[in-house]
Amino acid sequence: MSSSHLSTAWSSSALASSSTRRQSASTPRSGGFVVRCNLRELRSRIDSVRNTQKITEAMKLVAAAKVRRAQEAVVSSRPFSEALVEVLYNMNQEIQTEDIDLPLTRSRPVKKVALVVLTGERGLCGSFNNNVLKKAETRIDELKQLGLDYTVISVGKKGNGYFQRRPYIPLERELEIGGVPTVKDSQAICDLVYSLFVSEEVDKVELLYSKFVSLVRSDPIIQTLLPMSPKGEICDVNGVCVDATEDELFRLTTKEGKLTVEREKVKIETQPFSPVVQFEQDPVQILDALLPLYLNSQILRALQESLASELAARMSAMSSATDNAIELRKNLSIAYNRQRQAKITGEILEIVAGADALAG
């Protein structure tokens, strides 16, 4: 869709979303819809709202289809992550009596925290980006109150623009995701946080993203990326595991001649890990190679979750804009018909009055 169409959709959907407020401000106590324009302007406004309705409805359906693909990407990556957790857990059981020192699991007193913030690449998605950035501001205030130094790694155009307008927030790096997240995108973030943590420039790395819950809900959460647990557990700042037990998929179907979205629960079964395993290499060396791989998979999954949340928010926002456009179009049509009827009635009265004058 062209940029002009997007700007039209934005301005018109904003007009549609504020129609209720304007109506309440300009509506008398009788409940009528008052407009201050002639019939030609009313027809133009009705046509404009009709075009906006078509655009927002199309954007809603496109977002619904993309949500399904984005959620399928999250579900398809789950067996790999679960199997990798099983490998890490069993290897940790093998070497738990040994005194090991792995760079990514090395805990030290926290003096500086790196906060990775994942936002969207585009707008027209309601309060999605705003909720993530508010969560980031809240976390930054918490770090300040704790007396800790911090730096921000922004991923996404919306977050980049937000932090650029706030030079008082230290920004380590700005990154952008062109479209669907790939392993290359997650690897760039992984390499950056790995180098910051191993070089001891930061003592802790936290990841802030919007976790996809359902079609109408997504929760901004913060999870600790580094230091990692040797068991591969990824938890939030409060120690609560952030891995979901089941996912929700959405299927675009037709109902009563209209496109609609149906949801279904999907639970992924993973194969049990064999308790009897012999390692050809030193388990410490294997762990040292697997932990960065697991870190990369977690960042990729967070990118996919964030994309699914953004698309779901865009679908909901476009749905609301479409509903508001329908309501505004209905009110304008009523006002148009009333004004047209009044004009016709006035002309008839003038004709009757003229005929009476001639007859008298």
Ordered list of secondary-structure elements with their pairings:
Blueprint: H1 3-17, H2 19-26, H3 39-95, E1 112-118, H4 128-145, E2 149-155, H5 157-164, E3 171-175, H6 183-198, E4 204-214, E5 217-226, E6 247-255, E7 258-266, H7 283-359
Parallel strand pairs: 1-2, 1-4, 2-3
Antiparallel strand pairs: 4-5, 6-7
Helix pairs in contact: 1-3, 1-7, 3-7, 6-7
Subcellular location: Plastid, Chloroplast thylakoid membrane
Family: Belongs to the ATPase gamma chain family.
Main location: plastid
Describe the structure.
- This protein is of the alpha/beta class and 360 residues long.
- It has helices at 3-17, 19-26, 39-95, 128-145, 157-164, 183-198, 283-359, and strands at residues 112-118, 149-155, 171-175, 204-214, 217-226, 247-255, 258-266.
- The strands form 2 sheets. Strands 3-2-1-4-5 form a 5-stranded mixed β-sheet, with helices on both faces.
- Helix 1 (3-17) crosses helix 7, helix 3 (39-95) packs antiparallel against helix 7 (283-359) and helix 6 packs across helix 7.
- The radius of gyration is 28 Å and the shape is elongated.
- The N and C termini lie far apart (66 Å).
Radius of gyration, CA atoms, in whole angstroms = 28 Å
Element order: H for helix, E for strand: HHHEHEHEHEEEEH
Uncertain segments of ≥5 residues (pLDDT<50)?
A: 1-31, 244-250
Averaged pLDDT: 76
- Indicate the overall shape: elongated
> Based on DSSP secondary structure assignment, what is the total number of beta strands?
7
Strand order of the largest sheet: 3-2-1-4-5
